[in-house]
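quick q for whoever's on today - can somebody do inverse folding on this one?? i tried earlier but teh output was garbage lol. tokens:
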């Protein structure tokens, strides 16, 4: 346990010596001061711990030291001691920032010991909470989002313009592009980071319960409402509410969302009075809300209030160079979670991922890597460790080896074979392989044997001889 320091500021030597003795026996490090000036000097010199402060000192009122002490070190805890206790003094002490108030009675040393322990426990708890808050804040910063593509860097530059603003932001993009991650980054890098971040998936809650989840309800508002409940907007007061899949919001609730945005008030189900809320709204959707507006499935007035600052998140297939970076990140993460030594991707497996279109975007890539780490048995992830559906999707790409993104074709025979043959049973015999090559060369050359021979690096007599030896096998394989 780290050393715990106590500063006693009191002009009664007998009490000061008694408390110092008892507290030192309990393992604390104790300093003493007989007046306010000496006590102020200790605090200003960097004292960090618990201050036992007498209410009446020879040179100053103890209450007048509370605020300067707290300004010098907000982490200290001040316990006011007095032989002339009153409710008013206690209230004023806590108003100024004191942690506790103890009367100098016969059992003062016992009461001080309890108060000191509680004060240190409070400090420890506050430190842990702050550390967790710092971890969350750091985790959800834009700089922590794994991306180096020009497309994502441009997105981050755009989002920095609204980081400190109160305007509503609409995040648009396919499922799995990281819309909630971006929403959290906006919250934790902005001025509301100390407030709550509340996320609600509008598509994940039954329509019959969604209104209560959003706005809360009063006791008895409907069957099963045995107690009053805050809605997400009230819970998010002072912070940010993230409405994911806003396009799935029932039409009749869209008017209530609009009212919250306009009036900054929510009305619980079963209530006739509203409650003021200070909430920043970030919404997200994979749908085209403008199309829904034109189809009368989404309110135009709500759309224009939500889309004050619309942002498009590019899918993974449009993020140049991010697949390899994310793969490395997810490999490290999955290996830690599965308690396996750090694995690497084989070049052939990496080429499969780089040519795959990722309809599920970043979320799908993470799942693919998790699958590969679970089934992998060696230090290197091979093609056979990837989900078969992914490998097959790449195998079915057009014959020129390019997909819709214009990805370069696989050039190496070794690469092609690693993609095509995953087990010994799948390997063709040399005879069948040669027959297939000759048949393919003849087809591509329109039956021109000299041209086929040059392509295969064989002489014309050899081609003719092999065709004769193979009989109809080449024609069969060609068909």
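ok took a stab at it. sequence:
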């Amino acid at each position: 346990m780290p050393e715990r320091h106590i500063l006693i500021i009191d002009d009664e030597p007998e009490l000061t010596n008694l408390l110092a003795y008892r507290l030192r026996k309990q393992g604390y490090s104790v300093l003493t001061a007989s007046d306010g000036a000496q006590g102020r000097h200790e605090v200003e010199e960097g004292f960090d711990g618990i201050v036992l402060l007498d209410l009446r000192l020879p040179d100053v009122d103890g209450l007048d030291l509370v605020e300067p002490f707290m300004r010098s070190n907000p982490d200290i805890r001040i316990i006011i001691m007095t032989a002339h206790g009153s409710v008013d003094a206690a209230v004023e002490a806590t108003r100024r920032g004191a942690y506790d108030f103890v009367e100098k009675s016969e059992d003062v040393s016992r009461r001080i010991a309890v108060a000191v322990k509680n004060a240190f426990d409070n400090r420890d708890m506050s430190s842990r909470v702050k550390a967790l808050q710092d971890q969350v804040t750091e985790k959800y910063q834009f700089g922590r989002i794994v991306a180096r593509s020009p497309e994502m860097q441009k997105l981050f530059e755009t989002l920095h313009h609204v980081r400190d603003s109160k305007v509503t932001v609409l995040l648009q993009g396919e499922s799995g592009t990281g819309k909630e991650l971006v929403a959290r980054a906006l919250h934790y890098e902005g001025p509301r980071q100390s407030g709550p971040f509340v996320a609600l998936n509008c598509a994940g809650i039954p329509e019959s319960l969604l209104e209560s989840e959003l706005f809360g309800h009063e006791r008895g508002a409907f069957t099963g409402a045995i107690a009053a409940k805050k809605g997400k907007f009230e819970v998010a007061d002072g912070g940010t509410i993230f409405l994911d899949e806003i396009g799935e919001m029932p039409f009749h609730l869209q008017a209530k969302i609009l009212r919250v945005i306009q009036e900054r008030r929510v009305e619980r189900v079963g209530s006739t009075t509203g409650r003021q809320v200070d909430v920043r709204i970030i919404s997200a959707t994979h749908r085209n809300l403008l199309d829904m507006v034109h189809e009368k499935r989404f309110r135009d007035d709500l759309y224009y209030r939500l889309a004050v600052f619309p942002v498009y998140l590019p899918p993974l297939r449009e993020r140049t160079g991010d697949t390899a970076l994310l793969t490395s990140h997810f490999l490290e993460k999955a290996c830690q979670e599965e308690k396996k030594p750090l694995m690497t991707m084989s070049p052939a497996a990496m080429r499969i991922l780089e040519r795959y279109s990722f309809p599920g975007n970043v979320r799908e890539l993470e799942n693919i890597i998790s699958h590969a780490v679970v089934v992998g048995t060696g230090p290197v992830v091979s093609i056979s460790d990837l989900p078969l559906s992914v490998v097959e999707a790449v195998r079915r790409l057009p014959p020129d080896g390019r997909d819709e993104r214009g990805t370069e074709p696989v050039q190496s025979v070794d690469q092609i074979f690693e993609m095509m043959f995953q087990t010994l049973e799948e390997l063709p015999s040399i005879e069948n392989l040669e027959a297939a090559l000759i048949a393919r060369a003849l087809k591509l050359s329109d039956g021109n044997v000299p041209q086929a021979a040059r392509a295969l690096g064989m002489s014309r007599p050899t081609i003719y001889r092999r065709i004769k030896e193979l009989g109809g096998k080449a024609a069969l394989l060609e068909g």
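fwiw Confidence is low (pLDDT under 50) at residues 400-411, 474-479. also The first helix runs from residue 13 to 25. so keep that in mind when u check it
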